[in-house]
Amino acid sequence: MTMRTSRRSRWPAAGLEIVASCFIAGLPGLAKAGVPDPPPITEETTQQLFLAVSVNGVRKAGLHPFAQAADGLRADAVLLRQLGLRWPGSEQAEGEIALAGLPGLEVNYDSAGLRLSLVAPVDLLDRPVLRLSSGLASATPADPSTRVAGAVLNYDLYSESRAGGVSASAFGDLRFFGEGAAVWSQSAVAHAASRTGAPALVRLDTQWQVDDAESMTVLRLGDGLTGGQGWTRTKRIGGFHYGRDFGLQPYRTTTPLAAFVGEAVLPSTLELYVNGLRQSTQQVQPGRFQLDAVPPGTGAAVANLLITDINGQQRNVHFDLYGAPTLLQAGLSDWSVDVGFLRKDYGLRSFAYDHRPLASGSYRWGWSNTLTLESHAEATTDLFEAGVGSVWKLGDRAGVLTTSLAASRGDGTSGNQRAVGYQWAGIDFGFAVNSARSSAGYRDAASRLEPALSRGSDSAFVNFGTPVGQWSLGVVRQLLAQSKPAHYLNLGWAADLGRGATLSLNVQRVNDEKKSYSTSLTFSMPLDSRVMTSASVQQRRGSTQLSASASQSPRDETGWSWWAQTATTNGRDPSAQFQVGRLTEAGQWWVGTTANGGSAGTSVYASRNGALAWLAGDLHALRHVEDAIAVVTTDGVPDVPVRLENRLLGRTDARGQIFVPQLNAYQRNQISMDTLDLPMDIVADKVQADVVPERRRASRVRLPLRRIVPVHVSLRNQQGQPLDPGGVVELRMGDSKTGASTRVGYDGLVYLEDPPPGAALFVRGEAGRCTARLPDPLPPAGGEPTPLECKP
């Protein structure tokens, strides 16, 4: 223990504490000749003190009793525990404890100011580990009371005319939703051509789905995809699906968090940096802490935790991180169950299903923060397949190892499939290797309707950065059941030339054949924020193609776009294509033409996409509504600008409504209105709202506006001079006060909302009191302020 005593006078700050200490301690009263000295401290005597105490820079409320003895300051064990100290045997300790006997405790006693500063090592602080978080947003549940019943039809239309005839195609996705929990949807595709006769309409998917965001589960009846693992094939079925969906809680992090553990002796500021970028700033009190943070997306990263205490002293703690999105947090599970019938000829026939029922189940579980276990099983008539797998993070930053093993029996045969893979990614370097093999008798349920599984594959990928650009190399070897192995090689390079310009090279080769390779070199450069140009040369199978293109993208909300390209092959067969389009609040359309020097000739085409929404008793034409939509109402006030995340979307219609089709489900979407252009007699109680919509549904958002009677008056004294600013103005009818008080502005101006006609204005200012009376009827809104005489 270190003890320091200071006798500097601090009367202005501690006078009351000194007087209180003298009184409570029973020191001799003040004599006429002055204050006598206290008796000397001996081994048999102690002096009672009441001190202001701080522990590790944190001030404790009130005054606390201590005893000054020959061996230094003493305190009752109960008091020391209340101050947040612990030491060996502190739970059973009783009576007075000498501060000098606590190991590592630094005691700073200011006898003049009666202040005691204790600085204890972290081991002496009786505080739990402080849990902090970085990058973890809190979720806000969706409010079912804001649901709006209605329907949405997304559509895509395309038509083309060429020498051979005219063709057209259409895609539609219709969904209905009520005030209940379910959403019903139906999608279909249609196509027709002048040469093929009658048009064709094909049903795609019919679904009835209920999402439960609290439990993160989805119940679906109808068509859809089964669940699965990375080493299985998903199947398209018609039937029943029930399973986990983490997308229902998008703010929840499913991968293991990076934990930064440290300690602070004094109140400190924590700054977390990952790869040199600051992620968060936190304030901590003395003691141990743990900072949980979202790890980087994929691969290795370097984290630094900068700890700065109240004295300005800094410590930098280094951590190694490795992000593995395929891992689950310890104890977290992901699962799905599917029962139904396999779809056949999807996109070609509407109601083609296999007659044999299928049952499938998948399960993933976070065994620990470094190991996730996987399993899958499926069964159909005379066929059963099951397997297990794992995802294992090796150490802090040694990469991720994946394994799987599956076996099947049925159709008179049996077999197995095994796979292993490893990947490592860093800031400027990464690679991955994978290998899979399956025996001749291995089957899954899809094998009866789809091409047979390959007998195996091997792949290796590497990417790295250099001062001259980013490089990538990939090699794939695939073992086919009915032919010799296929080999694929891909080499890529890309360099940033500055000002947005890039140069890229790509080389591909297939099966080691002399003429089975292609090489392309592409240069692209933006001319401004919307116009992009590019030129490329491609060589493949002995021919060389040159091409150049330019395009302009639309603005964020609405605007024109265009795209033009010209190309030639071996100096012959020139071709050109041009299209122009426009993005509007009701969707997007394009028209274009292509001209080919060969036999293809010239064609003209047009396309259109958008949505029709029936909501709140009104039909609106919108852009595609892929997810959630909001019906924003301003209580009947038209022509009000509405923004989504500060982006202008449009203005309310004649009914005071606007549809916002670009919301993210189960996330906070900030919708606001611009009130600067509103008339003077319309005010907003709030100008923005955070809406959390449900998936593929509509929500109502109310931004209330109300109409008022605004009155501007100019208060003047009996000499006709404006009253001084700052005076308090009270509005009264008879003896009762009406409304809140306001103040006189410059030039005697006073603004009132909805005042009663003929009400009295009582003004209290530095010049005294006076009274004015509003006219009856009130003056019309707008125009010059009405002058009123304020009489004493």
From TrEMBL:
InterPro entries membership: Fimb_usher, FimD_plug_dom
Pfam family, one: Usher
Entry-linked PANTHER family: OUTER MEMBRANE USHER PROTEIN, SLR0019 PROTEIN
GO CC terms of this entry: cell outer membrane
Protein name: Fimbrial biogenesis outer membrane usher protein
Stretch list, region Disordered: 534-559
Any single GO BP term: pilus assembly
Biased composition (Polar residues): 534-553
GO molecular function, one term: fimbrial usher porin activity
